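User: My instructor asked us to take a sequence, write out its structure as tokens, and then describe one feature of it. I'm not sure where to start. Here is the sequence I was given:
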Amino acid sequence: MKSIENFIQSANQFLWSGPLLFLLMGTHLYFTMKLHFPQKNILKAIRLSVTPKKSGDENNLSVFATLSTTLAATLGTGNIIGVSTAVALGGPGAIFWCWITGILGMATTYAECFLSVRFRSRDKSGAYQGGPMYMWQNGLHNVTIGKFYGLLTLIAAFGVGCTTQSNSITQTTTISFGLNPQLAGFLAAFMAGLVIVGGIRSIGNVCMKIVPFLGILYTASCILLLVMNREAFLPAIHLILHSALAPRAAVGGAAGSSLMMTARYGIARGLFTNEAGIGTAAITAAASESEHPAHQAYVSMTAVFWDTVVMCLLSGLVIVTNLILHPQSALNVNEAGLTDAAFSYLPFLGNTFLSLCLIAFAITTLIGWSYLGEQAYCYLTGNKGIFVYKVAYIVMIYVGAVLPLNFVWECTDLINAFMVLPNVAALFLLQRYLHNRMPS
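Assistant: Let's start with the prediction itself. The structure tokens for your sequence are:
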């Protein structure tokens, strides 16, 4: 196991210390310019996401349900543990790079989701199926690469979707509540499984009810902590910006790093939490009842805004302001514990509140990713044996509960890296079909 972990770490060090950082940031910048800054329409996009629009399509999801399902697959450990590890391993400046990834990544997510809706297909039941697999199949007439991406997505569902989330649940329940890891894994598998077996309608309905509530609750708690830490707010911003371009010393025990390491962890964690450039948001976007590619693309773009531009930034500011005011609180904690240390100063429940948020977010992420994996499985098998996939996914939730945290995160970064390549290639090859005309 140690030799495998060392190999994966070496591969990540190479991929995320140059090639993929330039590829992703270059892609984000390119589509931001090509689409004439779709980010400027974020307020209109938010309004589109919450405007009811009935089409009578019972086989697919509303635009708000697709947004909620997308957020379910992204909100959670990336915003809480991911930001913490980024600061611990890359320094405070990693927050800046994470935030920039979100700002520019909105354009890439727009492109992914537009093309996914443009080239999606219907199955025999009338349900839409899409994503980079269908972009390659229907847009570029290359089934082989479509299947390759589908295989990567299936692996990611069992890896990123299951192990990262269930491992986070185990870490949280063991530290906060003294719960046995095996029991925590079983309970997580049971609760997520109840929703997963119900299919996409069940997943969409649960996500619409839970995800917005969790997001608002967590955001409000971060704002409260920032109000409490207001004297360190401006120094924190200065420290983040200074460390982003000239990282040296660390604060409160967090490890300082070079500029490349700061960018590496900031961008990698930003990608993990919003998945812009990976193509997973495009899979969910294709399930929308909306017939207008631009309409759904703008709605899906808001997921990156809420996930990274808002929530990751708030988490990062809470961590850094706490490190400035209470540096002793970060001593003797692991890289995932900086957020926990900051939330210990919350006037109500404190760490218990953060633990409950993390568990709830992780469960919704398990549910959201189950759909992504299911679509990949259906693409690879022709919709055969879906129940087998669902059982395997639920079992993997339990298995992931006992894996080492560092190994899980390293695997996550490597899987993300391989998914980027075919997705980004499809975006450039199909870019002639893109436009950003806002639907009326």
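For the description part of your assignment, you could build on this observation: Residues 62-433 form a domain with the Hydantoin permease fold (CATH 1.10.4160.10). Try explaining in your own words what that tells you about the chain.
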